Amino acid sequence: MDVILDRESPVVGATPKDILYAKGTQRLYRYRPVTDEVYRIPVVLVMSLISKPYILDLSPGQSLVEYLLREGFDVFMVDWGVPRPEDSHLGLEYYVLDALPRNVEEVQKVTGEREINILGYCMGGLLGLMYNGIFHDAPVANMVCAATPVDFDGMGLFRRWSDRRWFDLDRLVDSLGNIPPDLIFRSFEMLRPAQRWAEYARLLDNLHNDLYVKHWRLFNKWVYDQIPFPGQAYRQLIKELMWENKLMKGQLNIGGRMVDTKGITCPLLHIMAEYDHIAPFDSTQPLSTLVGSEEKEDIILKGGHVSLIAGRNAWTRVWPQLSQWLGERSV
Amino acid sequence: MPDNDNRADVGQLWRSWLTETERQWNTFFNDIMGTDSFGRFVGGYIETYSQVQRLISQNMQRSLSTFNLPTRSDIVDLSERLSTVEERLASIESALKTLAEAVGHPTQTASVTQLRPRRTRRPRSQPAQAQ
Q1: By the CB < 8 Å criterion, does B107 face chain A?
Q2: Which residue has the higher pLDDT, A301 or A5?
């Protein structure tokens, strides 16, 4: 009944945290450590511009943030917030050249450590890759990318729909400013049109299972809780990546700085899902080949975009592997 | 999966059917949506969406101005100015803090900066080095 009436919306993002730095809608959070002793190198979670960050902190027992804290990491999160109309001019230059370096400085200041680990989910991984590919002297000790698309030739239907022959990108961005969440949500939904109805049918089948219903509500809350996409960043993403695939070609230029991913030499852990329909496997798979790191490891799972980082696959396989990989390199 | 009496589990059959039907419908729609003509349709839809949005926005702006009410762009302007004020305040605060530290009067630090766990943790498999 709660599901039908949408009563008692599940509480998300409840792990205690403090705001360390804020600018505009962007917040840098520090989660309160739960162990007396933490790994020397802090972990900075870089979130996507497309969705809300609480996917990494869904609920107690189902939160990557909580898991990392219990494993003894000092965890920070770069949350871009919900862009306001006046943020429509924010492009990749702001996120990569201005905001990320500033957030890293704040983490360094508060921890007293020079080095940091970056963990980027979806487009957050892309931003981390761009940052690290521009600033080769950046203090990134280790990098983890999860469900991060790099080869936009592999973006499937998204690429087809945004074909420059019929997609008037400039008119769209100039008219709307930020891209409305509804437009983004519908495009995701169109990738698997039958999924929503099948999910409702599965929910009916599992109404007696409280745990299933709880998880269903949590994931659904996140899926429908979309945010606008900053207009200028969207324009660059489509032009530079979707149309020209410049990151793969080594030609991506952000604010006059070349993104040279071959110059990234820190250890890399790359987590991808075989049945990811948002960032298809073909688009994520070549990431490891782009970087110059000698030490790199790929984890390929059978799940999808979300289950990779927050589903059963995540709790049982990804999180323990991630913790071990990061722990060994964070002393 | 058959139960103890070797009867087919209807629930399981239904679940398999649901998964297979979902997969087939998704493939069917994806095939249609992957064509050039559908791409052109999406392009046309986006163009119409943009035009309608622009028209509504212009008309609304005109109407609000007629009644001497603030328009969306007025509010965005105001918000931008507020952001500038916030940023300037933050930089003044930061400068004052630096100044106070320089003259030996550190300001009260926020609770978040007071969290100082020992940064000596090692992975379980890795023994701690002798200090």
Answers
A1: no
A2: A301
Instruction: List the domain range (segments joined by +) for residue A311.
Output: 2-328
- Token readout for A95 is 């996120």
Cα nearest neighbour of A107 on chain B:
B113
A207 touches chain B (CB under 8 A): no
ipTM over 0.90: no
pLDDT tier, B131 (very low <50, low <70, confident <90, very high otherwise): very low
Kindly list the distances between the CA atom of residue A267 and the CA atoms of A78, A149, A153, in Å, as whole numbers in the listed order: 21, 19, 26
Non-local (6+) Cβ contacts of B89 within 8 A are none
The alpha carbon of residue A330 and the mean position of all alpha carbons in its chain are separated, in whole angstroms, by: 21
Q: Return the pLDDT at A10.
A: 78
Count the Cβ atoms, other than its own, within 10 Å of residue A223: 17
Q: DSSP letter at A33?
A: P
Whether chain B has a CB inside 8 Å of the CB on A8: the answer is no
**pLDDT tens for residues A179-219?**
999 888 888 888 888 888 898 999 988 888 888 888 888 88
pLDDT at A7: 63
Q: Phi-psi category of A118—alpha, beta or left, where left has phi over 0 and alpha has psi -120 to 50?
A: beta
Name residue A296's beta-bridge partners.
Answer: A268
Q: What is the CATH number of the domain that holds A176?
A: 3.40.50.1820
| Residues belonging to chain B | 131
Q: Is A39 in Cβ contact with B53 (below 8 Å)? A: no
- How many domains are contained in chain A? 1
Q: Which of left, alpha, beta for A192 (phi over 0: left; psi -120 to 50: alpha)?
A: beta
